[in-house]
Amino acid sequence: MRAEAIIFDVDGTLAETEEIHRLAFNETFTHFGLDWYWNRPLYRQLLDITGGKERIRAFVANHRAPDGPRALEQVAEMHAAKTEIYTQLVAEGAARLRPGVLRLITEAKDKGVRLAIATTTSLPNVEALLQAAFGMPSSSIFEVIGAGDIVAAKKPAPDIYRHVLDELRMPTFACIAIEDSRNGLDSARAAGLPTLVTPSIYTSHQSFPGALAVVPDLDTPPVSLDTIAKWRAADAGW
């Protein structure tokens, strides 16, 4: 059965954006006078925590961060500043869509498949990426965008997917999710969604039990609506 809607994650799924987020965090820490630096191995660990504000709090709690108490009082301001830095970097061309993303989205639009987003990243981050990648507002491409703090419990909780499904007014069996991380997979699966995983540079070490399929990207092999339909037909759980 062909999917009637595709729900995309954003960071690591639509584009390899996590490295841009890491750079934006580090620049923000400098602006706030914090002697913090998140290198790639550390950031890979911190990505187990979804949400930028939550990631800062986890770093303070678990890594004996210098000036931790002061930073906790400024989490909201720091996250807002980081978002400004990130969106500027994206607007300047720092992020590109992953292979096959544009092709699959174009096919879906041409064949009347509805498109949505379910992400823990903030709405300005989503809008900046989609404007830079497509040259048009996000609402012109995606019918529903669930982002940021629109739900209280972030991935791996299923809340953001349930919110998007409610907005689409569609049953889970008619949809498919596309994710790049274990947290995202667990979130989508807990909401009842068959889930395709395309691991990113920061999640390639993770395992993905229960995924409909795991492929390097949407071009390896070329993933189409027919490909997804075949995977769904072959999956005994769906």
Automatic annotation (TrEMBL):
User: What GO annotations for molecular function exist for this entry?
Assistant: hydrolase activity
Q: Which domain of life is it from?
A: Bacteria
InterPro entries from the UniProt entry? CbbY-like, HAD-like_sf, HAD-SF_hydro_IA, HAD_sf, PGP-like_dom2
What Pfam families does the record tag this protein with?
Hydrolase
Protein's name according to its UniProt entry = Protein CbbY
